Amino acid sequence: MVYGQTLARFRDLFREDFDVPGLGRFVLGRFWPIFTPSEQQEFLGLFENLVLLTYSKRLLEYADGSNGPRVTGSRLDQDGAVVFSEISRGPNQTVQPLKVDWRLNARDGQYKISDVIIDGFSMAANGRSELEGVVERNGGRAQAILAVMRQQIASASAR
C-alpha cells in the first residue's frame, strides 16, 4: 500500500477513534483560552496533521504490515479505561515488541482515545511539553505555536 493511502486510512481512524478536540485542548493546555476561536480551530487542524505525519510514519516503521496491535490487557479507571497492547517490530521475533497503551475516555456515550503511551511516553504529555518549550523560546508568545507547527508539517511532508 502506498504511504498516501496509508496516511488517509490513519486520518480516518484518527478522526473516528480519537478525541481530537479533547486531546488538542489538553496538549495546548493553559494556552487554549489565550487563543481566539479561529486560532483554536487552526491549532486543531495543524495538530491533527502533525500527529498523523509523525506517528503514522513511526508506527509503520515498527509494524510488519501483517498485523496491528495485539491487546494484552485492560484496566478500568475513574475517567474510562486503559487498553494495553504490543506491536510487533517486524518479522524478527528476537526484537521486543513495542508496548503501546491506549487511554480511553467516555465522551457522549462512546469511548474515544485520549492518549497513546508508547513505551511509557505519553503522546499528550510530550506534546504539551513541546508546546511549552516553543512558547518559552519565542518570548512567551503563544501564537508562535501555530507558526512552528506549520513549519514542522511542511518539513514532515517534504520527507
How would you describe this protein?
- This protein is 50% helix and 23% strand.
- It has five helices and five strands; from the N terminus they run H-H-H-E-E-E-E-E-H-H.
- The protein starts with a helix and ends with a helix.
- Strands 1-2-3-4-5 form a five-stranded antiparallel sheet.
- It has one domain: Roll (Nuclear Transport Factor 2, Chain: A), CATH 3.10.450.
- It is an alpha+beta fold and 159 residues long.
Question: How would you describe this structure in keywords?
Answer:
159 residues; alpha+beta; Nuclear Transport Factor 2, Chain: A; 5-stranded antiparallel beta sheet; 5 strands; 50% helix; globular
How would you briefly describe this protein structure?
The chain is built from 5 helices and 5 strands, in the order H-H-H-E-E-E-E-E-H-H. By secondary structure, the chain is of the alpha+beta class. It has one domain: Nuclear Transport Factor 2, Chain: A.
